[in-house]
C-alpha cells in the first residue's frame, strides 16, 4: 500500500523481507459455474454487481456458463493478519480512502492503449438514408486492389459508389496511403466497409463523417447493391475468406500451417504469448531468444539473485523484466493441458479454477519500448529491428560476468581495394546478423513467373479472381554467392591517389559466432519509395557450412593503402564556409541510406546515421543507429545546422577536437555500440585526430593499449553508466567473441506474412526435443509442415567440432 506495486503469492514474502513494507491489498477473483435454469441451460447473463476490479476476463471462460465474484482484503505482514474490505469500522479513514481509490482505478494498460479496447458501437446516422449510385459496379469475391495504388491489404469498399481504396494506419494497424479518406473528402460519401471482414453476422464499417467505427443495420442491402451476398461470406482468423484458401499457396496459410490439424503442446518451453495488438514481432523474437541456453541461464537461472537485488521499482529494471518473462515461458506454470472431462465436472460442482494458458507480456513491452518512437506504438514493427534493439539493451544491462548476447557477436573483415592503384585496406567491425541478399536473377522458375505475371495483369484488367500464386524459387547457394561477391564503394577516396577513384569492397567473417542469425533481405523500396516485400521461396539448408567465408587478412603481394585521411578544405570567407558546409551536409550517400532502410529502420533515421558518420558506409551508420535508437528524435528529419551553428556543429561533424580536447560524443557512442569500452574509444579517437575509420583500425592494431588514468574520464564514466563497475570486468581488449568452426545447424526461424514490415503477422518455428514446434502468439503446437523456405530470420547453432 506504500509503493502500489503488485506481486504474486510466491514473491510477496521476498518484497516484505527486502523493503519492510507490511501492508498489502490482496485481490482475488472467483470463477464459478452458473446454476442451470429451468430449461436446463445456464441462467441468462446479467450485470454482476460483485465485480469491481478492472481485470481482464479469460476468453476461455467469457460465456454465459460462468459468473465472477471479486474479493479484496488487507493483509498485514509478517503475521498474515487479514481484514476484509470494505471495513470502515476497523480501518482509519485515510486507509479506507486509499483502498477505495485502488479498487476503483482503471488498469494502467487501458489508459496507455485506449484505442485497443472495444467500445459499444452505435448505428450510423447515414445508414438509413444512404444513397447508393446505380453505376453497375460489381465487387469480385477476391483479388481486390486499391484503385489508386497497388496495395492489396487494408482495403475499404465505399458503400455509395463501390470504390475500393486503401485505409490509413489507425484503422487496424496495417499500412495504407489514405486513399479512402481522400476519396471521402473529394466526394462526401460517408460510409465504407472493410473488405475481408464481411460475414453473415456483419462487417467492420467506418463512418468518415462521424470519424468512428459504426454499425450499419442495413449492411446486407448495401452490400447486395454491389453484388455481395453476405450470407455466403466467411472470414478466417486473419481476415481471409474461406473461398480464398482452397489452394494452400498463400504465405498466410503455409506459414501458419492452415488446413492441418496441429497437436497443442504444453509444459516448460511450450508457453504462448498473448498478442497485445500488433506485438507478434516481440512474441516471435522472445520465443527464439529464450530457446537459447545462454539466455536461459543468464536470466531464469539467476532469477532469485536478480529478484533479490532488483531496485525498489522492479517494473523499471531490464534484468528483472527479462527474468520474469523467461520464467513465464520456461517454467510450465502457464502452459498446462486441459483437465479430463470427469475431473472438470467434479471441480465445477464447487469452484472452477481456470487453467493458465499463455502469458501477457504487457509490463515487458511497456518497459522495453519506453521512449522508442516505433516500439512504443501499437503499429506492426520489423522483427529484425526489434532483435537489434533487444541486443542493445542486453549489452547495456549486464546480468553478470557472462553476457548472453556474446553468442551472437562476430567480427567482419572488410577488404576495400582501389581499382586504379590495386592497393587494399583491411578493417574490422562488429556485427550480430548475417544479411543475405535475395538473388532474384537466379530464380529457377523464370518462365512460370513470366506466365503468372501476364495472367495476373489480365485478371486485374478484367476484374476476375487472380490466378494461383507462383512464387520465385531462389537457390540458397545463389544468395550466399551474392553475399560474398565484391560491391562497389560509392564516393571512394583513394589515399594512394589522393583523389576520388573507383573502389570495391568484399566482406568476410573474421570470427564465427556461437549462434548465427541470418536475415533474408526480403524488404525493399519500390520506385515510388513505398516499402514492399519480395515473395520468394529459398531452400534454406538444415546444415550450413560457411567455413569458406573465413577472412584471411593481408595476403602476400598485396600492398596496403597509405594511412592518410581525406583533406578538409574550409574556405576563409564565412559566407562561403556556410555554403560549403550546407552543400557537404546534403552530400549523403543514398546507397547506404537505402541499405539501412531495407533493414526496416525509419528513412529519416537512416539519413541522419549516414550524415553523422561522414558517409563512411552502411556498416558504420548501422552502429550509429544501434547507439541512438532510444532517443526521442531518432526518427525525426535531419536538421541542417543554421549559420550561427556552423562553426561548432561543423567542427564536430568533421571530426575536429573540441575546446576541452575531448572527441565528439557521437563518435564515442558509435565505437561503444560496437562492444568496446568508453576509455578505449576516447583513447583511439585522440590518437587519430577523431578520424572514426582510423580510430577503429587503431583499436584492432593495439590489442593491449596503454592504460590511461584520467580522472575526468573516470568521472564521466561513472556519471554516464551506472553499471561501470560491472562493465569494467570485461576489460578493454576489444569486443568479446566466441570464435569457432563455421559449421551450423538450423534450430529456429521467424516468418513474416504480409506485404511490408508495417503490416502483417509474425510466427516463430523452433526445433525442440527432436521435432519442430510452431509458436503463433498464444497458440503453441507441434509443427507438421515447417515452412523453412519462407522464413525471414533464421537461427543456426554451431556444430561442435
From TrEMBL:
<dbReference type="InterPro" id="IPR013083">
    <property type="entry name" value="Znf_RING/FYVE/PHD"/>
</dbReference>
<dbReference type="Pfam" id="PF00627">
    <property type="entry name" value="UBA"/>
</dbReference>
<dbReference type="Pfam" id="PF00443">
    <property type="entry name" value="UCH"/>
</dbReference>
<dbReference type="InterPro" id="IPR009060">
    <property type="entry name" value="UBA-like_sf"/>
</dbReference>
<comment type="similarity">
    <text>Belongs to the peptidase C19 family.</text>
</comment>
<dbReference type="GO" id="GO:0008270">
    <property type="term" value="F:zinc ion binding"/>
</dbReference>
<keyword id="KW-0832">Ubl conjugation</keyword>
<dbReference type="InterPro" id="IPR016652">
    <property type="entry name" value="Ubiquitinyl_hydrolase"/>
</dbReference>
<feature type="binding site">
    <location>
        <position position="179"/>
    </location>
    <ligand>
        <name>Zn(2+)</name>
    </ligand>
</feature>
<keyword id="KW-0833">Ubl conjugation pathway</keyword>
<keyword id="KW-0597">Phosphoprotein</keyword>
<keyword id="KW-0788">Thiol protease</keyword>
<dbReference type="GO" id="GO:0005737">
    <property type="term" value="C:cytoplasm"/>
</dbReference>
<keyword id="KW-0072">Autophagy</keyword>
<dbReference type="InterPro" id="IPR015940">
    <property type="entry name" value="UBA"/>
</dbReference>
<dbReference type="GO" id="GO:0016579">
    <property type="term" value="P:protein deubiquitination"/>
</dbReference>
<dbReference type="GO" id="GO:0004843">
    <property type="term" value="F:cysteine-type deubiquitinase activity"/>
</dbReference>
<comment type="subunit">
    <text>Interacts with UFD1. Interacts (via UBA domains) with SIAH2 (when ubiquitinated). Interacts with BAG6; the interaction is direct and may mediate UBL4A deubiquitination. Interacts (via UBA 2 domain) with AMFR; the interaction is direct. Interacts with UBL4A; may be indirect via BAG6. Interacts with NEDD4.</text>
</comment>
<feature type="binding site">
    <location>
        <position position="149"/>
    </location>
    <ligand>
        <name>Zn(2+)</name>
    </ligand>
</feature>
<dbReference type="InterPro" id="IPR041432">
    <property type="entry name" value="UBP13_Znf-UBP_var"/>
</dbReference>
<dbReference type="InterPro" id="IPR001607">
    <property type="entry name" value="Znf_UBP"/>
</dbReference>
<feature type="domain" description="USP">
    <location>
        <begin position="271"/>
        <end position="799"/>
    </location>
</feature>
<dbReference type="Pfam" id="PF02148">
    <property type="entry name" value="zf-UBP"/>
</dbReference>
<dbReference type="GO" id="GO:0006914">
    <property type="term" value="P:autophagy"/>
</dbReference>
<feature type="binding site">
    <location>
        <position position="166"/>
    </location>
    <ligand>
        <name>Zn(2+)</name>
    </ligand>
</feature>
<feature type="domain" description="UBA">
    <location>
        <begin position="587"/>
        <end position="628"/>
    </location>
</feature>
<feature type="active site" description="Proton acceptor">
    <location>
        <position position="761"/>
    </location>
</feature>
<protein>
    <recommendedName>
        <fullName>Ubiquitin carboxyl-terminal hydrolase</fullName>
        <ecNumber>3.4.19.12</ecNumber>
    </recommendedName>
</protein>
<dbReference type="InterPro" id="IPR001394">
    <property type="entry name" value="Peptidase_C19_UCH"/>
</dbReference>
<feature type="binding site">
    <location>
        <position position="146"/>
    </location>
    <ligand>
        <name>Zn(2+)</name>
    </ligand>
</feature>
<keyword id="KW-0479">Metal-binding</keyword>
<feature type="domain" description="UBA">
    <location>
        <begin position="662"/>
        <end position="702"/>
    </location>
</feature>
<keyword id="KW-0677">Repeat</keyword>
<dbReference type="InterPro" id="IPR050185">
    <property type="entry name" value="Ub_carboxyl-term_hydrolase"/>
</dbReference>
<dbReference type="InterPro" id="IPR038765">
    <property type="entry name" value="Papain-like_cys_pep_sf"/>
</dbReference>
<keyword id="KW-0645">Protease</keyword>
<keyword id="KW-0863">Zinc-finger</keyword>
<keyword id="KW-1017">Isopeptide bond</keyword>
<dbReference type="GO" id="GO:0006508">
    <property type="term" value="P:proteolysis"/>
</dbReference>
<feature type="domain" description="UBP-type">
    <location>
        <begin position="122"/>
        <end position="230"/>
    </location>
</feature>
<feature type="active site" description="Nucleophile">
    <location>
        <position position="280"/>
    </location>
</feature>
<dbReference type="Pfam" id="PF17807">
    <property type="entry name" value="zf-UBP_var"/>
</dbReference>
